[in-house]
Each structure stands twice: as C-alpha cells, then as structure tokens.
Amino acid sequence: MTITPEPHTTRAGRPAFVVNVEVFLEREGRWLLIKRGEQESHAPGVLGGVGGKVEIEVQAGAAGLDVLEETARREVAEEIGVDVADVELTYVESAFFVTDDGDPVINVAFTGLMPADARPSAASPHEVAGLVWVSLAEAEADPNCPPWIMRTLRRMAPSRP
After folding, report:
1. Using H for helix, E for strand and C for coil, what is the string for 114-156?
2. Burial class of residue 55, CB neighbours in 10 A (0-12, 13-18, 19+)
3. Cα(108)–Cα(105) distance, integer angstroms
4. Residue 94 β-bridge partners
5. DSSP symbol at 152
6. 3-class DSSP state for residue 51?
7. Beta carbons of 108 and 57 less than 8 angstroms apart
8. Please, what are the averages of pLDDT over each run of 10 residues along the chain (161 residues)?
C-alpha cells in the first residue's frame, strides 16, 4: 500500500515547505533588483532580489553544509551571470509566505557587495525580465516594488536615503 502525503506535509505528516533564498547585491549604496519574468507563477513582473529554491543535489562528499549560501551563489550565477563565490553574504531576514499558486515558502534573504568588475545581465530571461539598480528612495517610489521587498531593503539600509 502506498501512502500519498497530504499537500504540504511530509509522509510522516509534518509540515513541508519550499525553501527559497534571495540575494540583494549592493554597489555604491544602491541595490540590484530583478524584474521577475512575466511567466513566473509567483509575483510575475514585480521587483525582487535575485534568488530561487534550494535544490537538493546529492554530490560525492557533499554534506549539505551551507546549503542556503550555496543556493544563493548558484542562483546569482544562473539568473544574472555573476560569480559571487568570494563575496561575503550576510543574513538579513527570513520570512514565511504562500505563493500565488499555494506553496508555503520559507524565504531567507542575504546581502553582499557586488564585485567591482561584475557586469550583471539577465542570464535567465524567462526568470529575469530586467535589472534595475535602486536606492531606498527610488525603490519606495517604484510601483513595481512590492511591500515585502521594501521591508527587506529598509532592514538593510535603515539610515540610508
């Protein structure tokens, strides 16, 4: 007999969540935000950090250490073509939300400095429709910047304009 778990629970009945990582890279007091692709199932067309879901890949010798940071680095490379292997990522916050299509998500936000020589671009156009550098004030004035992104930006720059 096969037991099919209820939606959003493990086979043992415990809550199950998607784990998402979001990265906000800074350069000269401005943050790089992406415009989410119109095909995205959650929050299409709005501004957000670079990021995506934790993907569990079994690799020889991998012990699952630093999975959030490694996910952050992988997503930055995949979505905007920037290598942040040597960038110190700093934890900003974590939050719970439910996607537009019903998935419960734990989102973990990090910030770090954009490498000086990096030239980000929309390397994954179906996920990233565009890139924008914004100050806190510019983000606040942008109607495509959702409240949850504003909250994160404010936490990263409480004293910046």
Report:
1. CCCCCCCCCCCCCCEEEEEEECHHHHHHCCCCCHHHHHHHHHH
2. exposed
3. 10
4. 108
5. H
6. strand
7. no
8. 56 86 95 83 79 72 77 94 96 91 91 96 86 95 93 79 42
